[in-house]
Structure formats: C-alpha cells, structure tokens
Write a structure and sequence with these properties.
By secondary structure, this protein is an alpha+beta fold. About 25% of the residues lie in helices and about 35% in strands. The protein has 6 helices and 12 strands.
C-alpha cells in the first residue's frame, strides 16, 4: 500500500485516517507486530502528527492496537469472547475452561459476596484467583468464592497451597450436580490491583461479569471476573462467532 494523501472528507480527518489505518492493519501487519513510529506514519499518510495520535488512540480504545511500555504500538490480538449466554452451563475448571489457576486462600469474603453465598460475613470461604491470557497478554482476572460446604471432602493434603490448592478446590467443586447459573454484566473501572494484573492503568474501562452457580438448592459458588474492555467482547447464544471489526462489508466468523 503506497502513501495515501487524505483529501477533504465530511467526517473528521482523524476518523477517516482511523479507517485507512485499520485496513492497513488487516492487510499488512500481523498480531504483535510493532508499527512504525509516529513520524514515519504521519509522513506516509500525509497528516499532522496530532491527527495521527487521535486515530491511534481511537484504534487503541477499539482494541485494534496496544501501546506497551518499552515496546511501542503493536497490533492487538483478536478480541476474546465473553460468553454471557445461558446455553452452556459448567462448573469453573470443567473441560474446555480457558482460565488458569493462580492461587487460593481461605478468608472472609466481602460482605456482598457473603450475602450472595448465604454465609456468615465473618465465615472464611475458599477464594480462588484465576487469570485468562490471550496471545501472551493478560485479558481477564477472576476471584471465585467457594464456601467450604461446597467442597466438604477437600483436605489439606489435597490442597497444600498456591495453584495446587486452587486446582484441588476446582476439582472438588465438580462433584455436585450443577443445577443452574446466572450472570450479570456491568461496565466498571479497573481498581489498582486489577489494573496491575491486567497491565492497565487504574481507572481503565473493564467489564465485570458476576456469575452465581447453583447446586443442592443454594448458591454453591460465585465468580467475579474482570475483563479488559479493550480486548474482550460479549457473546450471546450457542456460538457467538460473528465479530464485526470495521463495517458491514468486513466481518469474520
């Protein structure tokens, strides 16, 4: 693709440039590839660097680009689908689960979580911390709260500490029959701990997905998962396979 001089267009120049850049990302660059510096890009497209920065910032907001300290601006991987449909119901840790156990502690949960679980507010529960990674980059962090009554056969021998303890809790959680689950999704801002784990700045937009798992007529576990809003998309239904990047003429399954 040769140098493109932008002519008068009815939309803001940076917005038109964003479309041109997006097409170049699809045709010329691969995931993780570093873009040329701002001076080279501005010269190539015949725009001021201020206009270029606006276009790059918009593409970053849309999840097409990632700016990484010490690296530069790179092409972002495809968005990760966050299934919020009800067709597929499974315990955390079941076959096909894409989360990675990180750690597990036994502690009293936040009051709202204790109320949702139906436990006393000072009663310790298993808190499993898990992460989700795409193309080597963190895209989500989860806290899974599991009352001790949901994993009654768990022993210290099975779950010494850390990731091993997390895996043991998840394994024991598979034993009861899952009777159902529900989800709630809301837009939020990354707290300091979430931001650090997700490699974002505090206050960055995130999607918070809360899931309750039901067994034996009660809430057997509760998940609070925080997703990077710039790298994730909500999917509904059995497949959730259609993603539109640019417009109705460019879509992929």
């Amino acid at each position: 693709m040769g140098t493109t001089q932008l002519e008068s267009v009815p939309e803001p120049k940076y917005w038109h440039l964003k479309t041109v850049l997006s097409e170049a990302l699809d045709s010329e660059f691969t995931v993780g590839e570093i873009l040329p510096n701002e001076r080279e890009l501005a010269a190539r497209f015949g725009v001021a660097r201020a206009t270029l920065r606006q276009a790059l910032e918009q593409l970053e907001l849309e999840g097409r680009l990632q700016r990484r300290r010490g690296v530069g601006t790179t092409v972002a991987p495809p968005r990760v689908g966050v299934d919020v449909g009800t067709e597929r119901q499974a315990w955390p840790g079941a076959t096909g689960d894409t989360w990675h156990p990180v750690d597990c502690t036994l502690a009293a949960p936040p009051a709202a979580v204790a109320d949702a679980l139906g436990t006393d507010r000072d009663e310790p529960v298993h808190i499993v911390r898990r992460s989700r990674v795409s193309h080597g980059q963190p895209v989500a962090a989860e806290l899974l709260y599991v009352p001790r009554t949901s994993v009654p056969d768990l022993t210290a021998i099975d779950a010494p500490s850390g990731a091993a303890r997390a895996r043991a809790v998840l394994r024991e959680l598979q034993r009861p029959v899952l009777e159902g689950q529900d989800r709630a999704v809301e837009l939020g801002s990354a707290r300091a701990d979430d931001a650090k784990e997700l490699d974002r700045l505090p206050g960055a937009p995130v999607l918070v997905v809360t899931t309750r798992f039901f067994a034996e007529g009660r809430t057997a576990a509760l998940s609070v998962a925080t997703y990077r809003a710039d790298t994730c998309r909500l999917t509904f239904g059995a497949s959730g396979g259609v993603e539109i990047h640019h417009g109705p003429e460019r879509q992929a399954s």
